[in-house]
Structures are given as structure tokens and as C-alpha cells.
Amino acid sequence: MAVFTTVTPDQLSIWLENFDLGKLVDLQGIASGIENTNYFVTTEKGSYVLTLFEKLKAEELPYYLNLMAHLASRGIPCPNPVPDHQRNLLRCLNGKPATIVTKLKGKSIEYPDAHHCSRIGAMLARIHVEGRSFADSMENPRGAKWWGSALPEILPYTDGDEGRLLEEEILYQSEFDHIDLPEGVIHADLFRDNALFDQDSIGGLIDFYFACNDWLLLDVAITVNDWCLDSSKRLDRAKVIALLSAYDEVRKLTEAERKAWPRMLRRAALRFWVSRLYDYYLPRPGELVHAKDPDHFRAILEGHVSDQDPVWI
User: Fold this and answer.
1) Of the candidates 22, 59, 56, the residue with the CA atom closest to the CA atom of residue 42
2) How far apart are CA 296 and CA 266, in angstroms?
3) Domains assigned to the chain
4) Is the pTM of this model over 0.90?
5) What would the pLDDT profile of 179-216 be if each residue is shown by its tens digit?
């Protein structure tokens, strides 16, 4: 269960006195997730999600909270942080920085079809368009600099073939670091479990705590790598076309992005392969949930390496 910091009803009731949310009715821990402690909270005024941040420090959080508030104000269905009586979006709870946000409708889709991919593509483009007016900026915390620092820690745990593939791909991607592509706010983690469908529509997008400023195409590749695979972890043509076409209707993809697409798919797979290897071999003390399988993204990367002409529109 992904509850690293326990919060009792009495503790939360006292904390909620700082908000105009009424009295606590119910408190339930949320089992999913590996980064933060999350609870479903019901008060007299509605349903919310409480998050206690286990890794991120208080000074790192305004970017994420302000971004969600910005996007929510522009019609993006994302969690909207609730301000306290002093208009703060962040408060301390049981020694951890914490926020409470609106609860969204819907549930995640385990096996998306082309229609779901189309809806996600259009919504991702809307995030990128609305993100243009967001004033804050943050460098990607899981970008090339992080790979370089994580690699020496990971390599001792890998076998020969795995280690060589990591080193070769990181070297290959280093030649790509300064390419000129459209940049802006990206979600950076828009996997299936971070999107909620309410019947035929997207009810909400969640978990913006990897959001940052980077190439917009990287965000597209991250999303395609999760939403548009077949059972053999290769790209499903119909799903990719559906997602990219819907995205392109909202924000026009450029010729430079088309040329960069094969390498960007690899870069997106590498980013999550390195992250999962790190979490698998070097879990933080007290980790209460199982790290996700690193081999999943190794297989995706290997598929992209062998496919030099991936699906595009």
C-alpha cells in the first residue's frame, strides 16, 4: 500500500480547520502510486484527494501546484489545489508538505482502443497549448543530466548486455540534446493509470508531479509508449495514428518533430527504463510498494531500436 505517512481522522480534522471544506466525513488510504502518500477525503462539502509528498521538498512544489491551478482554470480536467484561509496551496501535515485537491470523475482504462487514444492525444495537445501562458518553468528532473548521474549507480546491478545497451543508448541520445524542437510545459507521465475516463469522455488527468518544461514531442512519445502498444510491446498502427492525428488537430506537429520521432520514442523509453532500474535496485528506505518491472521499457526500447521507421501521420 502506498501510504508511507499515516494520517488519522483526528489529525486530518485539525488540519482541515485551515480550509473552508467543512468537517471530515471519511478518510481512505489509496493503494496505488510509488512517490507520495495519498488519501481519498470526504468532507461535508465534497470529495477530495489529500497528498503528502514523500520525496519532493516544499520549495519544489509551487511549480506543480500552480500549474494544476493554471490548467484547471483553463478547462483542463486536472486536480485543482484547494487554497487554505491564507490562500496557500501547501501546508505541513505530520511533518510532510501536503496539499488537498479536487477529486475527479472516472477510472483508468487498462486496455485502450483507438478511440481512447484519440481522446488522450487531443487532451495532451490542449495541455501543451494552455501551458504556453504558464509563467513558471522547471528543467526536466529526469532528463539527460539525471541519466548521467544515475548510470554509475545502476550499472553494477546489470548484466553485460543490459549495461551495454544502457551506455550505448545514453551516448546515442547525447547527440540529440541540443536539437531545436517546440518546447513548453509537459505532463511527462501521462500513462493509462494517470487518465480517468468517465464513460466516453476524459474525466480527469492526474499525477502532475513529474511535469516540467521540455520538448513537447517527448511528452507525445511518452504517452504513445504506454497507450499505443500491442501485446508484443510494439506500436499499434491504428492507435498511434488516432493519437497523433487528434493531437495534430489541436497543435500542429512540425516537420522537425516528424524527423525526430524515431529517436524521441527511444528517448522516452530510455527515460522510464532508467527510472525503473533505479527504483528496482536502489529503493529508498521504508519503501512499501513493489517497484515496477524495468524489463517492460527495455523491451519497448529494443523494439524502437529495431524499427527505424515508426508509425507517423
Assistant:
1) 22
2) 13
3) 9-102 (3.30.200.20), 114-306 (3.90.1200.10)
4) yes
5) 999 999 999 999 999 999 998 899 999 999 999 999 99
